[in-house]
Structures are given as structure tokens and as C-alpha cells.
Specification:
Radius of gyration: 21 Å
Shape: globular
Number of helices: 7
CATH topology of the largest domain: 2,3-Dihydroxybiphenyl 1,2-Dioxygenase, domain 1
Number of strands: 17
Order of helices and strands: HEHEHEEEHEEEEEHEHEEEHEEE
Helix content: 10-25%
Strand content: 35-45%
CATH architecture of the largest domain: Roll
């Protein structure tokens, strides 16, 4: 009797596990940013921030029009690497998009940045000063020790030539991925995460955790003068939630508990506007992802799953959609080898 009961429990557990949907994404491949002048941006990221240019392509035609939702396009894209992480910079030669909205602040919901890791914040800050980067923070900030999950982290916000927000980040010995503590003679080591402003953490968790399949990796609530000066938002109080896929940079939610006057993502924004960032995930099956995302009523930028020309990437299919706050993401399917 006991053996039969145990067998039934095991079968029920197996059946439940088999019925749970598999994650739509398995890794974060890269972070994409639309830029106004590809050559100028590549020069900035390679000469100032030590990225390495890996590849470049130019494209037009139906596939990319259907993937981006921009008709009549011609684009140039460069893939850059820092450590083991990647970004992709895209210039739309035609049609040109809109600039970043004037007066953009860190609590506006189109805000997104990448966190670049350094082992020496003072040296990194002086390096950025010599290159005359535009400050977004008043200067490097050390988060206070009372904050168990973030205390001792040094951070500084600045901007690239198009006004995109970037962060340089230094972890204390007891925090961050152990790989950031490996000996290195490089000033900038890699990308820890990309951060996005969200209106409601629970809504974003239902999407990124429950629909896409990412795992929660950490949480904190940050406030105080250091956080205010870092974000350059008076009275800033943030709920921060970190998520990760099996590999690649993390995704960090920034929910402003105060002030709650950040502007929503513009409904009319397109992929050729300089406001556009996109997080690219790899997944096992883009058509399956399309079906589940449509069931979840995610807004699509692409017409659906699109076949990608072999001459431009090692992905066979891709789709582009938006999360509940308007942040764009891609899911791509690796090309069979």
C-alpha cells in the first residue's frame, strides 16, 4: 500500500513537471542600442570603454522591415564585446528616427542602461573625466552599509554621445559575481546587467519570470542621499529586483516607489528612434515563443517570427516585442550547425 502511494506521488510529480511550460529564453545574448552615427558610437565604446568590435553588417529588405517594424529601412549594425558580454549598436541610415525625449530622467519608463564593471572606481571615474563624458550622477556614489544587499557598491551614471545612460559599477569583496574579482589589468571588465525602469514589479515578474522563464537572483530597496545623487532624482526610493537567465547579463527592475512622476514609454516610439534599446534573448523555439507571447498579449514590433538572412547573423529566426512597460526585446533561435 505504501509502495503504491509513493508510486502515485512520483507519477503525479513527474506529470506536473512535464506539464509545466519550458522557459521561452535560455540566455541573454546582447543588449542593442539605436545610435545616430555608428562610426562615432563605435569609436566611443572602443576607445573610451575598451569594447572590442567583433563584426559589422549593413542590411535592408523585407526580413528586417518585418523584424523591426520599420518600413523602407537601411541599417548598419556593429557587434561589440567587453569581457564575455556583447552589445549591438544600430544606425538607421533610412529612415532616421527621433532623438531621445528632452528632459529625460532616470525614473522615466523608457530608461535603460548597462552596468559596466570596474575593479577601481576612482581610476575609472578619472578616466571618464579625461574623456569628458557627460555626467548623469553628480559623481561616484558608495551605497551605505545599512543596505544589506547593496551596501559598499560604488556606482556612477554617465551618458554616451547620443545621451544613452550608462553605469560604471564596482562591487565590494562580498558582492557580485565572483568572476569580477579575478585578477585583471583591464579597467573595464564586462557587463553585469541591464537595468530597466518598471511601473510595477509584480507585473514585470509575471512577464519576465513566469512567461519568459528568468529566475529571480536578488532584491533590495534603495534610498537615501547616495541613491538620489546616483539617479539624479530628488527623493528617489527604489525597489530593485535582479533576474537572470542561464547565461549572459542580468535584467534588473528599477521600480520607483518615489517619486512616481516618471513618464510612460511613448506609444508611438519605433526601433529607429534613439530611445530604442532591446534585450536579445536566445530561445529554443521562436514560433512557440510567438504563440505564448500573443496569448500573453505582448505588443509586437515584428510581424511575428521572422526568418533572418544567414549573411547577417548566426540566428535563423527572430521576433521583436515589448514588455508591459514598453521596453523592447528580441527572442532569437540559433541557426542549426
Amino acid at each position: 500500500m505504501l509502495r503504491r502511494t509513493l508510486l502515485h506521488l512520483l507519477l503525479a510529480a513527474f506529470s506536473l513537471a512535464a506539464s509545466e511550460p519550458k522557459p521561452l529564453v535560455i540566455a541573454v545574448d546582447s543588449i542593442g542600442i539605436t545610435v545616430s552615427d555608428l562610426d562615432k558610437s563605435v569609436d566611443f565604446y572602443t576607445s573610451v570603454l575598451s569594447f572590442e568590435k567583433v563584426s559589422e553588417y549593413e542590411a535592408d529588405g523585407d526580413a528586417f522591415e518585418h523584424l523591426t517594424g520599420v518600413f523602407g529601412l537601411r541599417l548598419r549594425t556593429a557587434r561589440l564585446r567587453l569581457g564575455s558580454e556583447f552589445i549591438e549598436l544600430t544606425e538607421y541610415l533610412a529612415p532616421k528616427g527621433l532623438p531621445v525625449p528632452p528632459g529625460s530622467r532616470s525614473n522615466d519608463r523608457w530608461f535603460q542602461h548597462i552596468a559596466i564593471i570596474t575593479g577601481d572606481m576612482e581610476r575609472a571615474y578619472q578616466h571618464l573625466r579625461r574623456h569628458k563624458v557627460q555626467h548623469a550622477s553628480s559623481g561616484p556614489q558608495r551605497l551605505p552599509a545599512w543596505n544589506k544587499n547593496a551596501g559598499g557598491i560604488d556606482a556612477f551614471y554617465f551618458k554616451d554621445p547620443d545621451g544613452h545612460a550608462l553605469e560604471v559599477l564596482a562591487f565590494p569583496p562580498d558582492k557580485g559575481n565572483p568572476k569580477w574579482r579575478q585578477p585583471s589589468d583591464r579597467l573595464f571588465l564586462g557587463i553585469d546587467h541591464t537595468a530597466i525602469v518598471v511601473a510595477d514589479t509584480e507585473t514585470s515578474l509575471r512577464f519576465y519570470r513566469d512567461t519568459l522563464g528568468l529566475q529571480v537572483a536578488g532584491e533590495s530597496e534603495n534610498y537615501g542621499i547616495e541613491q538620489e545623487r546616483l539617479n539624479n532624482v530628488f527623493g528617489a526610493r527604489l525597489r530593485i529586483t535582479a533576474l537572470r537567465a542561464a547565461s549572459g547579463p542580468g535584467i534588473e527592475f528599477l521600480e520607483y516607489l518615489a517619486p512616481r512622476d516618471g513618464r510612460p514609454y511613448p506609444l508611438e516610439a519605433r526601433a529607429n528612434d534613439l530611445i530604442h534599446w532591446q534585450t536579445r534573448f536566445t530561445g529554443p523555439a521562436v514560433e512557440v515563443a510567438e504563440g505564448r507571447l500573443r496569448a500573453a498579449r505582448a505588443p509586437f514590433l515584428s510581424t511575428g517570427a521572422v526568418a533572418v538572412p544567414a549573411s547577417t547573423s548566426n540566428f535563423s529566426k527572430a521576433l521583436t516585442a515589448r514588455d508591459p512597460d514598453g521596453h523592447a526585446f528580441q527572442i532569437v533561435e540559433p541557426r542549426p550547425r
